[in-house]
Amino acid sequence: MSLDLVGVLRSAGLVVTATPGWAQRGVRGTPPAPVGVLNHHTASSSSERNPAPSVQLTIKGRSDLDGPLCHIVIGADGTSHIIAAGRANHAGRAKASGPNPAGDGNTLYLGVEWDYDGTHPPNSAQYNAAVRVNAVLLRHLGRPAEAARGHKETSTTGKWDPGYVDMDRFRADVARAMSGDTDMNLNDEFTDWAGTTKTVQGLFNDLDQRIAALHHVFLKPGAEPSRIPGDKNRTNLRDAIMDTTAKVVGAGGETPPQPVPPVPLPTPVPENQPTPEPAPVEPAPVEPVPEAPPAAQAPTDTPAPKPSRKPGRTVAAGGAAGAVGTVAVWIASLYGVQMPEPVAASIVLVLSAGMSYFVPDRQEAQQ
Ligand SMILES: [Zn+2]
Fold first, then answer.
1. Ligand 1 centroid to 108 CA: how many Å?
2. Residue 328 in contact with residue 347, Cβ under 8 Å?
3. Residue ranges of domains in the chain
4. Positive or negative CA dihedral for 193, 195, 200, 206?
5. Would you identify the CATH topology of the domain 5-178?
6. What values do phi and psi take at 11, rounded to 5?
7. Residue 325 phi/psi, 5° resolution?
8. CA of 280 to the centre of ligand 1 (A)
9. How close is the Cα of 159 to the center of ligand 1, in Å?
10. Cα 147 from Cα 97, distance rounded (Å)
11. How far is the CA of 201 from the centre of ligand 1 (A)?
């Protein structure tokens, strides 16, 4: 057979990998005189990482069946691997199907293996590559789209491949591709508004993801009825966005916000005040003294006194509060009363808060 599979598919813009020796590869027997294309699945699990795991198997064959086992393997990434130009063991006996007669399937058909396991539909990259491969080959053979068949349509032994492919729909897609309605193919690249180069397929995948995310927001189980009166939807866009944003920004997901534990204030004890306990204590935080307006500033060494606060008295009050608190804890300990941590902390906290109000500014106290 003299069909230049590599040249024909490449000139149609398909992504093609020629396996070494493909042009001479074939099993003995009548050379193919194809009137159609027969489509199969390999039953192998292909993936993004390993899109065409069956290439070597289809070249070498199995213990019970000599290779090559097809002419073309289409990977999950849409790449066409050219396996053989000669006769291949892929079809067995064929019953009449569509416009194609019954007979020796390996003579009547070019065999195209779609590399997927057949237990789920092929992905769109693989499906669309198969549509184009069938269209290009049939146009080259001068045959109609109806001549594209599935093994499950010609098999006399109950084959069911390619699995999860509706062959009537597939032929309709092949017919559309053959009619020249190929303005843009899924593998074609274009540059989007942001200057990013992507394929049509990639764009669809992005859109799919975003739509799925929106569906999740709007239709997830437990979505609330819309807060807009009369709106029959489960929620509304504003609420959905605000609720989702609140979760993302850190309201802690589904859990209610936790109360912030109180930060214990340092226990301020004025200098020169005797304390019954030798516990080291921190001085009160220095409160910045607001500057008086420059016009009112008297050019003297003594600052203007603050009439509302009397240093002597507030120092005494602060010292007394600190002393009382510390003594209370100390006396309790003498009587063997172990104050629970929260109670002791509360006492210190309350006294500290009171003292931090009464204790004068450091500068003021030092005057
Ligand atoms: Zn098959």
1. 14
2. yes
3. 5-178, 189-249, 308-366
4. negative
5. Lysozyme-like (3.40.80)
6. -70, -20
7. -60, -45
8. 87
9. 7
10. 8
11. 27
Instruction: Enter the pTM of the model.
Output: 0.53
CA 278, chain centre distance (Å):
60
C-alpha 111 – ligand 1 centre gap (Å) = 8
Tell me the chain's radius of gyration from C-alpha atoms. 42
User: From the CA of 175, how far away is ligand 1's center (Å)?
Assistant: 22
Start-to-end C-alpha separation, the chain: 111
- Distance (angstroms) between ligand 1 centre and the Cα of 296 equals 100
CA of 348 to the centre of ligand 1 (A): 84
pLDDT of residue 190: 73
Let me know: does 162 contact 107? Beta carbons within 8 Å: no
What would the two tokens of residue 339 be?
């104050």
For residue 322, the number of C-alpha atoms closer than 13 Å in the C-beta half-sphere is: 31
Q: Which residue has the tokens 């593998």?
A: 187
Q: How far is CA 191 from CA 77, 227, 367, in A?
A: 21, 41, 75
| Distance from Cα 117 to the centre of ligand 1, integer Å | 12
For residue 13, report the distance from its CA to the centre of ligand 1, in Å: 26
Residues near 326 by beta carbon (within 8 Å), at least 6 away in sequence: 275, 276, 277, 279
Distance 113 CA to ligand 1 centre (A): 8
Expressed in angstroms and rounded, the spacing between residue 133 Cα and the centre of ligand 1 is: 17
Ligand 1 geometric centre to CA of 33 (Å): 19
Cis status, amide bond into 101, omega within 30 of 0? no
Q: How far is the CA of 276 from the centre of ligand 1 (A)?
A: 96
Q: Give tens-digit pLDDT for 21-75.
A: 999 999 999 999 999 999 999 999 999 899 999 999 999 999 999 999 999 999 9
CA distance 281 to 275: 10
